[in-house]
Write a structure and sequence with these properties.
Bound molecules: zinc ion
Number of strands: 6
Radius of gyration: 23 Å
Number of domains: 2
Strand content: 15-25%
Order of helices and strands: EEEEEEHHH
Distance between the termini: 54 Å
Low-confidence stretches: none
Structural class: alpha+beta
Mean pLDDT: 87
Shape: elongated
Number of helices: 3
Oligomer: single chain
Amino acid sequence: MKCLVCHKEFVVGDWICEDNVSNHVVPEKTYRALDAPAEPGRPAEGSLMPIVRGRTVVCNIPPSKKHMQDGEVRMIGEGSVEFINGRFSTSNPELQYWLDKKPGYNATEEQWKNCWLSKDELLEEKRLELVAMTQRLENERNELLSQTKKRVNA
Ligand SMILES: [Zn+2]
């Protein structure tokens, strides 16, 4: 792994960046969980994101580390992350490392949508995709037309 801040190559466990305080930074990664609340906790169909429907705190990310203090071993630094609507994004390589190891937080965007979006929202998504696709086709056609015109005029 390579840090985006100090540009140093680093290995698992070697998380601390050049300031000796914060962790290295890597490209952001999004984690998705499929633990959407079931009806009737879900709001009425048609209410659109972003509405917070679910918050899940995942403990032990990162797990605690052994630390010597006054000749005693103490466990410190256990962290947790919060998934909102089944999503959590981070560019912290230590959090990514532990989340990668945990099952259940690596759902695809498609799986996440099917779990978290209402039927209306899924339809709205499809509609927006179609609108975008139509627009792209139209742009391509106009582009072709103007190319043809240029060729004719040349
Ligand atoms: Zn760094």
